[in-house]
Amino acid sequence: MIHFLGVMCVLILFFISLIHVYWAFGGTLWVHAVIPTKTANEKAMNPPKLLTFVVAMVISGFAVVYAEKIQLFTLRSMPTWLQDYGLYVVASIFLIRAIGDFKYVGFFKKVKTTEFAINDTNYFSPLCLFLGVVGVLIEFS
User: Fold this and answer.
1) CA distance linking residue 22 with residue 16, whole number of Å
2) 97 closest CA partner among 125, 136, 116, 120
3) Closest to 88 measured CA to CA, from 43, 133, 131, 136
4) Of 32, 91, 92, 120, which is most buried, counting CB atoms within 10 Å of its CB?
5) What is the pLDDT along the chain (141 residues), one digit of tens a residue?
6) What CA–CA distance (Å, rounded) separates 67 from 52?
7) Are residues 104 and 116 in contact, defined by beta-carbon separation less than 8 angstroms?
8) d(CA 114, CA 118)
9) 36 in Cβ contact with 43 (< 8 Å)
10) What is the rounded distance in angstroms from the CA atom of residue 103 to the CA atom of residue 89?
11) Which residue(s) pair with 128 in the sheet?
12) pTM score of the predicted model
């Protein structure tokens, strides 16, 4: 069961990474619903395309960490410290993102009425919680 959940995490992370690549190359689908907003019409940030591409690569790296840990493949060039502690770090990032007390993201966010905030409560934070919990379960299994 843990292996199946790990595979789901890998697929989800690669899909999210592909979406970020799409946005980095100028795609606009769903973009209005995933950028934090201060009010209904005022974005809290406007990430440049290069940063969006960097985020895509980081998320792909997270997927590789999950994949290597559940032994979908073995990377001989992956540093030992990353094999040993990488999933702890990645899972912690997702758990903190989900549960953290931030202004625009997380279950305890301050801004709660914008389209992004509603999507964050319904989809993004639960997804981060799922990824974090599965990461911890993989580490302890």
Assistant:
1) 10
2) 125
3) 136
4) 120
5) 889 999 999 999 999 999 999 999 999 999 888 999 888 778 888 899 999 999 999 999 999 999 999 999 888 888 889 888 999 999 999 999 999 889 999 999 999 999 999 999 999 999 999 999 999 999 998
6) 23
7) yes
8) 6
9) yes
10) 22
11) none
12) 0.93
Q: In this structure, are residues 7 and 134 in contact, taking their beta carbons and an 8 Å threshold?
A: no
Distances from the Cα of 99 to the Cα of 12, 130, 139, angstroms = 20, 11, 20
Tell how many helices (H) and how many strands (E) occur in the chain: 6, 0
CB 99 within 8 A of CB 91: no
Structure tokens at 28: 């606009």
How buried is residue 61: exposed, middle or buried, by Cβ count under 10 Å (0-12/13-18/19+)?
A: middle
Helix (H) or strand (E) holding 131: helix 125-140
137: Cβ–Cβ under 8 A, 6 or more apart, which residues?
Answer: 2, 5
